[in-house]
Write a structure and sequence with these properties.
By secondary structure, the protein is mostly beta strands. It has a 5-stranded mixed beta sheet with strand order 12-13-14-15-19, with helices on one face. Strands 1-23-22-21 form a 4-stranded antiparallel beta sheet, with no helix packed on it. A hairpin with a 2-residue loop joins strand 22 and strand 23. The longest helix has 17 residues. The chain starts with a strand and ends with a strand. The mean pLDDT is about 95.
Amino acid sequence: MHATDLHLEPNEASDLCRVFSPDVLARHGWDRAFVTVLDETTAEDALALLVHSAGAALDEGWSARRIHADAGLSAGKTEDAEACAARDGYVYLLGSQFGKKAGPLSAKRSWIARVPEQSIAGDGPVPMEIVRFRFGLHRAVNDALADVDLLPVGRLGQQAYVEATIARGQLKAKSWDGTIRAADHPINIEAAEFRANGNLLLGLRYPVTADGHPVLVELENVDELFDDPDAVPRCGNAWILGDAGSVEAPVGLRALDTRGGDVFDAVVGDLDASGKSATVLADHPEGAVADSEHIRFELPPEAGRVVGSKVVHHFGDVRRVEGVAVDDEGHAHYVIDEEGHVALRTLVFE
C-alpha cells in the first residue's frame, strides 16, 4: 500500500472518481487522473484534481490542485460536498442532504452540481451548474425507502434533525416547508456512481437497515433536473447490501466506483465519526464500531432489493477511508482523511 500526502486544504476530502479519456491524459503527460471533493466549503470551491505523471512509479509522481468554478447566482449558497461521479462529459458533485452533527438538516446541503469534464483539465474558468433541491431529494429518497425496514431514528435524532427542521421551516415560512415529515429519516449521502442505465446510484452512510446493512437508492432523472427548472428528483430502486454490516456493527456507504456495467467497488464503514458529538452515534453507539472495508458487488438488470458483496480489502485501524477508484490495471486508489492532511493510498494487486 503506497501513501501520498496530497497537500489539500481544507483537510476533508470525500469520494473519488476517474476522469479524462486516454488521449486527454496523454496530452497532459498523465496516465491517471481522479476528482475528489472537499466538504468544508461551497460547491464552487469543492473540486480537486489528482493526477499521476506518466511513467512514474505508483508511489511517486502524484500532484493535486484545487479547481475553482463559477457558480453564477448559486455562488455561496451550498455546502458539504460529499460525492462525485463522471458521465457523458460531465463531472457531478452532490451535497450530503444532511446537517451538522447536532442538527438540524440544512437546505444548503441539499443540491447537485455539474461541470464540463474537459474544463477541469485546463487553466481557464470552470462553469458550474447547480440545482438546489431544498430537500426535494430528501423527500424522494424517503419515499423510495418507505417499505424498507430501517434502523429507527433515535430520540435525539428525531428532535435534532426531524422536528427541529420542521419547526424551522414553519417559523421562517421557508419555501420547502412541508417537505420534511415527522416520520422521515434524515439521510446522509456520501457516495454516488452512475449505473449502466444512466441512473445515479446514491450510497447512504445513514440510514441503514434495521439489521445494519447499507442502503443504495437510484436517482432516475439527473439530466432532467438540469434541463427543466421545474423538475423534482425522482427515485426508483432501493438496494440493500445484505452481507455487509450487522446489528452489532452496522455499516454505511462511504464511496462508490465503477469501471462500467453494473459492477461496483465501494467503501463501507461506521455511521459517523466518533469523538465529535455526533447525534447519530448518541442514539446508536454501535454505529461507531465497524471498521472500513473495500467491497465489490453487482446489481442485476431487473429491479430487486438485496444483493451480495465480497470483501476486497480490510483497512484495519485506518478508519476515515473516504473514496475509492480502481484504475484500468485493477489497482485500487483510496482517498483518506488522516490527521492534519489528505492522503491518497494505492493498493497494488500483483
